[in-house]
Amino acid sequence: MATRIDGKAIAASVRSDVAKEVEVLKEKGITPGMAVVIVGDDPASRIYVNNKKKACAEVGIYSEEYALPASTTQEELLALVHELNQKEEIHGILVQSPLPKGLDEKLIVDNIDPKKDVDAFHAVNVGRIMIGDYHFLPCTPAGVIELLDRSGIEIAGKRCVVVGRSNIVGKPMAMLLLHRNGTVTICHSKTQNLSEICKQADILVAAVGKAKFITADMVKEGAVVIDVGMNRDENGKLCGDVDYAAVEPLASFITPVPGGVGPMTIAMLMKNAVSAAKIQNDLPV
Ligand code: GUN
Hints:
Layout: E1 3-4, H1 7-27, E2 33-39, H2 43-59, E3 62-68, H3 74-86, E4 92-95, H4 105-110, H5 123-131, H6 139-150, E5 159-163, H7 170-179, E6 183-187, H8 194-199, E7 203-206, E8 224-227, E9 231-232, E10 238-239, H9 244-247, E11 253-254, H10 262-280
Parallel strand pairs: 1-11, 2-3, 2-4, 5-6, 5-7, 7-8, 8-11
Antiparallel strand pairs: 9-10
Helix pairs in contact: 1-10, 2-10, 6-7, 6-10
The structure holds guanine.
């Protein structure tokens, strides 16, 4: 029987720490500010953006929303990013992805001032993560590390297996575990003997995007299982990449979906927004 890691409670605790930091900054005359840009009318993006704005309000971060039509041109979006780069009261810029067809996401992100890149998607910030010299961490992998830390789970020396190699989750996740002295393996769709490799993991992070992909035979008894997935099962019910019911009896710790990694992503974004405000005011992070 595994201990269920309560991401909702841990995220609330992170947000409460962030709110205290915002208070301290406000006493110094600094109000952290974030611009959230959404282009088009993707319903999932709309929900994410609303949640991000709500989280900003809750922790005392000033936010501005820029909702642009799907017909927005690359030049128009770049012009907005450049304007926000210059805007003093805005410390963090987030361009919600996916962008409508015809807009070059990479080019847009690479035009965000790296000091304001609260997603940590800019090539400069990705590179900084690689060498372990960073202020911003990509929100989801950072949230996973926070869950492990706050659950008292040691990473150093442990065999960590990350399933999935996306730029947003898998790759930075592996890097953060490595920085914490985990022995890290990244698996992906071409990996041979996937089950055997997963079964060696002390800490198994599933970030594949396939419902219930990690089955009980892939998990070692006593493993820590972190589920980054957010999928719908055959009945349309929200589920992760891990077959929770089958894996839970084997694991020592496990994150549920929903209520595990998900709530941490926005909490860590708030943390990055505060770091951005500090950096731009020459304060230690
Ligand atoms: N779309 C889905 N997740 C994210 C995220 O973390 N940041 C941005 N900018 N867009 C997303």
